[in-house]
Specification:
The structure holds 2 protein chains of 2 kinds. Chain A is mainly alpha-helical. Chain A contains 11 helices and 5 strands. The chains are: A mainly alpha, B alpha+beta. The interface between A and B is large, with 62 and 76 residues.
Chain lengths: 308, 270
C-alpha cells in the first residue's frame, strides 16, 4: 500500500516505513538509545531525500524520547540541573547545526556531508562496540568471576573553571564540559537527525563520570528538547519536516520498542552488542560504497525556483 | 482507561490508513482554475475537437503517478501533434566529480524558463512532420531545450554538457518522457494518446496543446490547461508547511510529544 508523502513529494510503501520505524524502535528497546542513527541511513537507502529524512527523523526522536523520559521521570532518574546545563549547549549547538545544514543545502553539499558524517560516525561506533564485545567475551571465557575495573578518571574535569555542584549525579565539575558536550550533540542532532544518545550516554558515563542510573533519564531530557528545537527550526528554515513520514515511523516505533526490550531481556548483552555492531558496520559500508562507486549519472537537480 | 487509549491509537492508525486509500472527492483548490471548454483557435468551424479523460491531476495521499488520456476528432486529411508543457521555472543542475576517491558535487549551472514537464507525440514520425515547416511553433524536446537560458556565463561546450545533463535527469524522473507513444488514429478521424505523469510531479498549471497539420502547415490548434496540484490532506499539510513553517513546526513537535506519550503510556499498561 502506497502513501504520498506531502513534503518529500513522492509516494512510498506504508509498510516499508512502518517497518523502518519498528526496526528503530526495536533498537531503542534493546539498547536504550534511539534508533535514529540507523533509521536515517535506511530512509535514505529507500529513496527519501536526505534533507527530508534527517528533519523528519528528528521529529520521530521527539516522540521516542518522550516515551522513555516518562519512565525515568517517574523513577526519579533525571538530574535536572545537569540536564539543563547540557541543554544550554544543546540548544546553541542545534541552532548552529540547522544554520549549517541550511548553508550546506544551499551550496548543494548537504547529501554528501550527511553521508560522510554517517560513515565516520557509524564506523567508529561499530568498531568500538565490536572490539568491546569481543574482548568482554574473551575475558569472560577466561575468568568468569572477574570484577569490573574502574571506568573513569577525573583529571580534566577537575581542572576547568566554572565548577558547579550536581547533587543528583554526586559531581562537582566544571559546567563547561556538559555545555560543550551538549553543543556537539546538538550539531550532530541537527545535521544527522539523531537524538545522539549513542554518543551522549557513553560520554556522560566516561567523560563526566555520572552514575549510570541517572544517565539515560538525563540524556533523554536533553534529547527531547534538542530534537524539538531541531524539528521546529528545520520546519521554519528548510521546510523539510514530513509529518506523515514521522507519524508512520513513530507508529512503527511504538510496536518495535517493547519487542526490543523483551529480546534484550532474553539474549546476553555481549551477543546483542556484537550483532548490533555488525549491523552498524554493514550500514556504514553501504554508505561508503555509495560514495566511492561511480554514479550511473554524474548529474542531479537542485531545488526548483519558481520565482527566481 | 486502557480501552480508551487503545481506541485512540486505533483512531490514529485509521487516519493514516484512510488517507492512503483511494482519491477522495475533494473540491479543487481555489488557486487552480478549472479548464474552460475546448474552443478551437484559428478557424470558425471546428476542424479539431479534443478532451481529456480528467480535468486535473490531483495529488492525493494515494497518488502514485497518473496516466491521462487525451482524445478527440479531426477533419481528415491531416496529422495530429500533441504537446504537453509544465510550468517554467529556474532549475539547477549539479555535476559530481571524483575528489579524493569520493564522488561529490563540484559544478553547478542554473537555467531559466525550464519546463517542469515536456512531452510531445504525433500520429506520424515527428521528425518528418516537423521538417515540413511546422517546426517554428511546434518544438521537439531538443529544440525546446536549446531555448532555455543559462544563468551566468560559461564556455559553450560546458553549457551543452549541463544542458544534456538536465535533460538526462528529467528523463530519469519521467518528466521528459522520451516517447509517450504515437497518437493513434481510428477510422481516419478519431485520435487518442496517453499522457504519463510520474509520482514526483511538480505542481502548477500544465498546458496540453493539440495541433492539426496538413502538408506541414498548422491548420487548427486547441489548447487545454491541465492543473496539477495537491488535493485534500496532502494539500493542507504542504500548504501549511510552506505558508506557516513555524506553526507547522510546532504542530509537528506537539504531534510527536502526544504520540510518544501515548505510545509510552500504552506500552506500560500492556
Amino acid at each position: 500500500m502506497e502513501i504520498y508523502l506531502p513534503i518529500a513529494e513522492q509516494s512510498m510503501n506504508v509498510f516499508v516505513l512502518l517497518g523502518l520505524g519498528a526496526a528503530a524502535g526495536l533498537l531503542a528497546g534493546m539498547f536504550g538509545v534511539g534508533g535514529g542513527f540507523l533509521a536515517t541511513p535506511l530512509l535514505i537507502f529507500v529513496g527519501i531525500p536526505p534533507a527530508v529524512a534527517v528533519a523528519s527523523q528528528a521529529n520521530q526522536v521527539v516522540a521516542n524520547s518522550v516515551s522513555s523520559l516518562q519512565v525515568h521521570w517517574r523513577r526519579g532518574n533525571v538530574d535536572f540541573r545537569m540536564g539543563l546545563v547540557l541543554l544550554l549547549g544543546g540548544m546553541i549547538g542545534s541552532s548552529a547545526g540547522v544554520a549549517l545544514f541550511t548553508y550546506l543545502k544551499r551550496i548543494g553539499q548537504i547529501d554528501f556531508v550527511i553521508a560522510v558524517l554517517y560513515v565516520v560516525m557509524l564506523s567508529a561506533i561499530g568498531l568500538l562496540m565490536l572490539a568491546e564485545s569481543l574482548s568482554t567475551y574473551v575475558k569472560r571465557r577466561r575468568n568468569p568471576g572477574a570484577p569490573r575495573g574502574k571506568l573513569h578518571t577525573h583529571y580534566l574535569v577537575h581542572r576547568l573553571p566554572l565548577k558547579l555542584r550536581f547533587y543528583k549525579s554526586k559531581l562537582y565539575i566544571s559546567a563547561l564540559l556538559p555545555v560543550g558536550l551538549g553543543f556537539v550533540i546538538g550539531i550532530l542532532s541537527a545535521i544527522l537527525g539523531v537524538g545522539g544518545g549513542f554518543v551522549l550516554v557513553p560520554a556522560m558515563i566516561y567523560l563526566l563520570g555520572m552514575p549510570t542510573a541517572v544517565v539515560i533519564g538525563t540524556s533523554n531530557f536533553q534529547i527531547l528538547f534538542v530534537a524539538a528545537n531541531v524539528t521546529f527550526l528545520q520546519a521554519t528554515t528548510n521546510g523539510t519536516v514530513d509529518v506523515v513520514l514521522a507519524l508512520l515511523l513513530i507508529l512503527g516505533g511504538v510496536v518495535g520498542a517493547p519487542i526490543g526490550s523483551r529480546l534484550a531481556a532474553k539474549l546476553p548483552g555481549v551477543v546483542l552488542r556484537g550483532l548490533m555492531s555488525v549491523l552498524i558496520l554493514a550500514v556504514a559500508a553501504e554508505l561508503l560504497i555509495e560514495l566511492l562507486r561511480t554514479p550511473s549519472s554524474p548529474f542531479s537537480l537542485g531545488p526548483r525556483e519558481v520565482n527566481p | 482507561m486502557r480501552r480508551l487509549l487503545i481506541a485512540f491509537v486505533a483512531g490514529l492508525t485509521w487516519t493514516a490508513i484512510a488517507h492512503a486509500q483511494g482519491p477522495r472527492a475533494e473540491p479543487p483548490p481555489s488557486g487552480l482554475p478549472g479548464p474552460p471548454p475546448s474552443v478551437p483557435t484559428g478557424s470558425a468551424t471546428p476542424d479539431l475537437v479534443v478532451d481529456l479523460s480528467r480535468a486535473r491531476v490531483s495529488i492525493t495521499s494515494a497518488f502514485q503517478g497518473e496516466s491521462i488520456l487525451m482524445f478527440g476528432m479531426f477533419d481528415p486529411p491531416g496529422e495530429v501533434v500533441v504537446v504537453v508543457v509544465g510550468p517554467e521555472a529556474r532549475e539547477t543542475v549539479m555535476r559530481k566529480e571524483r575528489f579524493l576517491g569520493l564522488w561529490l558535487n563540484t559544478g553547478r549551472q542554473s537555467f531559466d524558463d525550464v519546463p517542469a514537464y515536456y512531452a510531445i507525440a504525433a500520429s506520424q514520425p515527428l521528425q518528418r512532420l516537423l521538417a515540413r515547416g511546422a517546426g517554428g511553433e511546434i518544438l521537439s524536446l531538443e529544440d525546446r531545450m536549446s531555448t532555455v537560458t543559462p544563468v551566468g556565463s560559461r564556455v559553450a561546450a560546458e553549457l551543452a554538457k549541463f544542458r544534456a545533463g538536465l535533460v538526462e535527469v528529467k528523463r530519469r524522473e519521467g518528466l521528459y518522457p522520451a516517447a509517450i507513444g504515437q497518437v493513434t488514429v481510428q477510422a481516419g478521424r478519431l485520435f487518442r494518446v496517453d499522457l504519463p505523469f510520474p509520482s514526483r510531479l511538480p505542481e502548477g498549471v500544465y498546458e496540453v496543446k493539440a495541433y492539426l497539420l496538413r502538408e506541414g502547415k498548422i491548420v487548427a490548434a486547441v489548447s487545454r490547461p491541465l492543473p496539477v496540484g495537491k488535493v485534500g490532506f496532502s494539500a493542507q499539510l504542504a500548504g501549511w508547511a510552506s505558508h506557516d513553517g513555524a506553526l507547522y513546526g510546532l504542530g509537528a513537535v506537539f504531534m510527536a510529544l502526544f504520540a510518544g506519550w501515548l505510545g509510552g503510556a500504552i506500552m506500560r499498561r500492556l
